[in-house]
Structure formats: structure tokens, C-alpha cells
Automatic annotation (TrEMBL):
Swiss-Prot/TrEMBL catalytic activity: [protein]-peptidylproline (omega=180) = [protein]-peptidylproline (omega=0)
Enzyme class at the top of the EC tree: isomerase
Signal sequence interval, chain numbering: none
Keyword terms, alphabetized: Isomerase, Rotamase
Name by which UniProt lists this protein: peptidylprolyl isomerase
């Protein structure tokens, strides 16, 4: 079924060009079609306002700058962000950690795997000295060969959910529950912490201001695009409430 936006049918050539931008999406075809729908909606509005649609990127950028303005981050907001998220401005902070991975693979019975991993964790909580031995026997990670050791890790070295648990543990701490990430179930311990140094606010103020302003701008863009979608005549695809925001969250650069 063709997708038509305000009387204009999306064409296959544009779709083929758009598809590579959405290969990481769960449904890359739908994500590409949605992106084209949103682009068409923006271009139609740019044309309605008399902007030069021959330069598509320029027209969209000018439209968003005109209609979806966002305030610059002020000093108070920047200082508040700095005070609320000091871990983001640490340098030199490291942990030495070990883990045991129970990998979730296609066809695995997750309940059985979780039950087995829980039994292993309970045994290690009772006798942590066996961690390296058990890692060699049980872990599905290459680190099993060295007793589960991951060496020294800094912020940004692991997936976010692993990092949060990692940097919350004290030295010598064994996480008392299983940690689930996109890789599977983990038993995690920290053997050593190397404390970092908090950068002075003045050193990161510009970075914070730029990040907060970009977040504010992106929010304004998403809200404006959602408004335009609500006004448009779209046939051949039903967009759920959050879909335009997910697909077009970054907007044009």
C-alpha cells in the first residue's frame, strides 16, 4: 500500500536512499518510511511558509530555527546539572572488576538460566574466595580464562547498565543480585577502586551549556514535528504517539 503525505506519494528511490540510516532499528523499513513521512511534512510546511524547498536541508533548518526555538542554558541550570551529575565530570576514576557471564543465546530457557545463575551467586556470597575458580568453570565470557578478570575499567568502557552497577560497588564488593544486560546475566565484583578527580566547574561550563542547549533544542523540535504530523494528511501508515520522536529525535544537524 503506498504511503501518501498531503497528497504526495513517497517513492521507492527515496526509500532506498533512506534505509541505510536505520539499520539498527527493530523495524528498519518502518523507521525509514516514518523518517520520509516526517521529512515530507516538514518540507510541506516550509513551502507553505515561503521557504526555498529546492534546498531541502536549508529549508528544514530555517523552519525549525523559526518555529521551534529553544532557550540557551543559563548559568543556574548549568551549575545545577554539574552538582547533580558529578560523576560525568570525573577524570582518572577506575575500577578493577571481575564478572561471570551467563550468556542469553537464542533458544535458551531464561528462567532455567536465571535459576542456575542465582544458585551460583548464592554459593559465591557464602564463599567469595572461589570466584576465580567458578568463573573459569561457568562464565561464557573470554575473561573466564583469567578467572573472570576484566582488568581496569573507566566510565564509558561498558554498557550503561553494567557501568552503573560497577561504579556503585565498593572495593571488595560482590553485587548481591544478578545483573542483567543486553549480553546476559552477570555476577559482578569490584576488587579495587582508583578514585578520580572532579574537574572544576569552570573547565566544563561550556560543555554543559552546549549539551543542555542541544537537549532543549531537540525537545522543541520533537514537539513541533509532532504538531505538524497531527495536522498532516497521512495515508498508508499509522504513526503511534511516540514514533515521530523516536525516529526523528536528532532532527537535521
Amino acid at each position: 500500500m503506498p504511503v501518501i503525505v498531503n497528497g504526495v506519494e513517497l517513492n521507492d528511490a527515496d526509500l532506498e536512499q533512506e534505509l541505510p540510516q536505520h539499520q539498527q532499528a527493530d523495524n528498519h523499513m518502518r523507521a525509514a518510511v516514518t523518517a520520509l513521512v516526517l521529512r515530507r511534512v516538514l518540507l510541506d510546511e516550509a513551502g507553505r511558509q515561503g521557504l526555498d524547498a529546492a534546498d531541502e536541508e536549508g529549508a528544514i533548518g530555517e523552519l525549525l530555527a523559526r518555529e521551534a526555538t529553544a532557550p540557551e542554558a543559563d548559568e543556574a541550570a548549568c551549575r545545577r546539572h554539574y552538582q547533580m551529575h558529578p560523576e560525568r565530570f570525573m577524570v582518572g576514576e577506575l575500577v578493577e572488576a571481575d564478572h561471570i557471564l551467563f550468556q542469553v543465546t537464542p533458544g535458551v530457557n531464561l528462567d532455567m538460566l536465571r535459576g542456575h545463575a542465582t544458585m551460583v551467586l548464592e554459593a559465591l556470597l557464602a564463599d567469595p574466595s572461589r570466584f576465580a575458580e567458578v568463573a573459569r568453570e561457568q562464565s561464557n565470557c573470554p575473561s573466564a580464562a583469567v578467572g573472570g578478570s576484566l582488568g581496569q575499567l573507566g566510565r564509558g568502557d561498558t554498557v550503561p547498565e553494567f557501568e552503573r552497577a560497577l561504579f556503585a560497588l565498593p572495593a571488595g564488593g560482590l553485587l548481591p543480585q544478578l545483573l542483567q544486560t543486553r549480553h546476559g546475566l552477570h555476577i559482578l565484583r569490584v576488587t579495587r577502586r582508583i578514585e578520580g578527580r572532579l574537574l572544576p566547574y569552570e573547565h566544563v561550563a561550556g560543555q554543559i551549556a552546549a549539551a543542555l542547549t542541544a537537549m532543549s533544542r531537540d525537545t522543541a523540535w520533537r514537539q513541533y514535528i509532532k504538531l505538524l504530523v497531527g495536522r498532516a494528511r497521512i495515508e498508508g501508515i499509522d504513526l503511534d504517539d511516540g514514533e515521530p520522536e523516536r525516529v526523528y529525535s536528532a532532527g537535521p544537524a
